[in-house]
Structures are given as C-alpha cells and as structure tokens.
From TrEMBL:
InterPro entries: DUF4185. Residues 1-25 are annotated as: Disordered. The chain crosses the membrane at residues 32-51. It comes from the Bacteria. This is DUF4185 domain-containing protein. Keywords: Membrane, Transmembrane, Transmembrane helix. The keyword Transmembrane helix applies. Residues 244-385 form the DUF4185 domain.
Length: 427
C-alpha cells in the first residue's frame, strides 16, 4: 500500500487561606470572573468551526521526544520469520490496529506476503502474496494467526473490471461499534479502499471507491461489504476516499479521508466525515464537513486547512488520534509548499476533528532498517492509541523500496512495520 496558539483553560482552586480576599471583595469580583469565564468559553467555541465546543480542555499539543518501540517491531519480525506455517504473514504494509472487546488486537494489513522466510532474512521472489489480510494478536501482545480467504486469498476478496483488469481492496481504519444504532451486539467495521490496476502515475492502483466491511465478533468472519462512496471525478487524483483514520467520539465516529494529488507531486487535501455510532455501513447516515456545517453531499466536502492552507503537506494516509481534549494529526510531509518528499513526519493539532489544524511541527525522520543504504522509504505513519500510555502515543510506519521490487525479497525487514513511541506535551 502506498501513500502516501490555542487557549489553555482551567479553574483555579477555591482559596481557603485566611489571608486571601474578603467575602465582600469576592462578591465584587463575581461578575468580572463570570465575564472572563464566558470569554474563555467563547474563544474555545471559535477555535472549532461550526460552533461545537470541545468536550474537554483543548491545549496546543506537540511531540516532545521519541524513541524506538522495539518490542512491537520485534514481535512482527518474530511472527514473520516463523516458518511453522507457510500460509501466513511474512511481511506487509498498511498496518493499522484495532483493540477488540475481549482484549485481543486486530491488525489490518494491505499487500501481504505469505510463504517461507529463508534463513530469517529473505523470501522467494515467487512467494505468494495477497492484497490484504488480518492478523490477530493475543491479550499478552503475541501475534497468533493470519486471517485470509480460502485458497489462500485476500481476506476481503477482490473483483475485476469489465475488461478484465484487477480490482482489489485495501483495508484502512477499523472500529468496533453496535451492529445497528442502539444495538447491544457489537461488530467490527473496516473501511476499505477499492482500487483498480492502472498505468503511471497509478502503479499503486487507481482510486475507485470507499466501502465498509462488517466483521463478526468474536470469530472475525467477514459478513458483508457495503459501498459508501464512488467519487465521480474524471481525474483520479481528485477523488476523495475515506478511512485513513476513524476516531469514535461520543455518539459519532469521525472518518478522515484524502484525495491523491501526491500522484502528481502535490500535497493531498484532507477531508472529514462523521457517522452515528452503529451506522458506518449505511451510506445515507454519512455527513461531510463543507467548511461550515455537516451535510449529506460528499461532493460539497471542503478540504481541511493544515497550517494556513489545505495544500501544506498531507499525504493520503495521514493518521488522527485524540489526546485529552486535543486532536492530533500526523503525516509524512509531502508535496505542497515546503513539503520534504516523505522524509519527515510532522504533526498538527486542533480543538475539533474538522480543525482548524495548527502546525506543522516536526516529529521525526523515521529510522530505517539497518543496511537499507538509503534505498528504503518510510511511509504511512499510523497512530496506535491502545498501545500508548497516559503521556505518549505509539506510532507505526511502513518501509518499502518502490524503485526496486526485488529488494523486499532479499531483505524481509524492508517490508514490515516498524514502531516508535512518542512523548506528547502541552505547549
């Protein structure tokens, strides 16, 4: 899979020091304090377009430090190198995680290699590969099995165009939600991108549509795949597909998407929709942000501004997470003014899912596997909030050598996810 200053508020504690202000002075300050509180609330509302105040304190948020998260990186290496079964995952990209209600974690993988790893280092150039797979991790953090279709085939089956070209599905973000709004039964919903084979610049597939798969719990069986949005833009680069991130918050799930202008060397534009909890598979329930309000027409969706412009530097696989009352967006800084060509992860923060997004702030240049000699590319940074702690966030990213396909056969580490742990701080 390819890509690719707020207001801090708080209430001071009541004074119990007998040397504090008299009761009369406190009464005189009452109207002023109330006015100040109103102004602070109004300022927070203005920070969130549409007049929706954040549910918690929203404060400027940045990444203050990072370090390798070796345990997760090494667990994927252990599982990939295990040749006790030859019909499971040895490498892949598009890696996104979803905590399940029973404590397991579902990992979603796009293009996935199967078969044998030779001497813990290389794979056969004729290895079987599929367009997508799932991986199941136990409660104690051990990868246990790969989810595939019969054959083995992709977990989410592919299609074909009328003239016989391949159409495949890449899994993106997933959420656990009620089967229907208000239902006690839960299911997994997985956002899918449908793509078809194409020519340059679409060597990674022409974007076609957004879909949602319903997966049963606890057995993780694919029940259905529903179409959500089929953009009609003649230029594939202008087609907005949704699912690069999905964040449940209250009674809504916020689903983030992007177009694919990076195929033309420009920044992608970022978009957001929201859906009531339990309704992700119902296209009629989706509402798209048009810059002022949520409405039913996807064609009227407006790009979110990153920094001072929508063209600042997003890729089509950015990620979004929530930390306290603040939303955090991370992306490799590609295209647009001052974009740096997939070398640096940058962050933006906002008080609401639709922005405005403040930044950019440099996060890190993702470390590559030893011996990659500058040939490899780090892409698709994805947040994994369930592996974080109170003050941090785990970020994963994928590695590939796009100009040399044979490289990922010679060295399996060049096509496996890697992880870092980010320290977050309020500024």
């Amino acid at each position: 899979m390819a890509e690719e200053a707020g207001t801090a508020t708080g209430r001071a504690p009541e004074r119990t020091d007998p040397s504090g202000p008299t009761r009369a002075a406190t009464r005189r300050r009452g109207p002023l304090a109330a006015l100040l509180a109103f102004l602070v609330l109004a300022a927070l509302v203005l920070l969130v377009p549409g007049g929706e105040p954040p549910e918690e304190d929203c404060r400027p948020l940045r990444v203050s430090d990072w370090r390798p998260e070796n345990a997760l990186t090494e667990e994927f290496a252990r599982y990939g190198d295990d040749n006790s079964r030859l019909d499971d995952w040895t490498g892949g990209d598009g890696s996104r995680s979803l905590p399940l209600p029973d404590g397991r974690t579902l990992w979603l993988s796009a293009d996935t290699f199967l078969d044998e790893v030779q001497e813990g280092r290389s794979r056969d150039p004729e290895s079987v590969w599929v367009r997508n797979a799932g991986l199941v991790m136990s409660r104690d953090g051990r990868l246990e099995r790969t989810l595939l279709g019969d054959g083995p085939r992709a977990w989410f089956p592919g299609l074909a165009t009328a003239d016989g070209r391949e159409v495949w599905r890449w899994p993106l973000a997933g959420v656990v939600e009620p089967r229907t709004p208000g239902s006690a039964e839960q299911v997994v919903r997985v956002l899918l991108w449908q793509r078809e084979a194409g020519q340059e610049p679409w060597t990674f597939g022409v974007p076609r549509a957004t879909e949602v798969a319903t997966v049963s719990l606890p057995d993780l069986r694919v029940e259905s795949i529903e179409p959500i949005l089929d953009p009609a833009d003649a230029d594939p680069a202008a087609r907005v597909l949704y699912g690069t991130a999905a964040v449940p918050e209250g009674r809504w799930t916020y689903v983030f998407g992007a177009d694919e202008r990076t195929a033309h060397g420009r920044a992608s534009t970022a978009h957001v929709a929201r859906v009531p909890a339990g309704a992700l598979a119902d296209p009629a329930a989706w509402r798209y942000w048009d810059g002022e309000r949520w409405q039913t027409s996807a064609a009227r969706s407006a790009p979110m501004a990153l920094g001072r412009t929508a063209e600042r530097g997003a890729t089509n696989t950015y990620t979004v997470a929530r930390h306290g009352g603040t939303w955090l967006l991370l992306t490799t800084d590609a295209g647009g003014p001052d974009g740096r060509g997939l070398t640096t992860v940058t962050s933006y923060w906002a008080c609401g899912p639709q922005g405005p997004w403040h930044g950019p702030h440099d996060v890190l240049v993702p470390p590559l596997p030893p011996g990659s000699d500058g040939r490899a590319l780090a892409y698709n940074p994805q947040a994994h909030p369930s592996f974080g702690d109170g003050g941090g966030l785990v970020l994963g990213y994928d590695v590939n050598v796009p100009q040399e396909v044979a490289a990922v056969h010679r060295d399996v580490a060049l096509y496996r996810p890697r992880f870092v742990r980010l320290d977050l701080s309020v500024r």
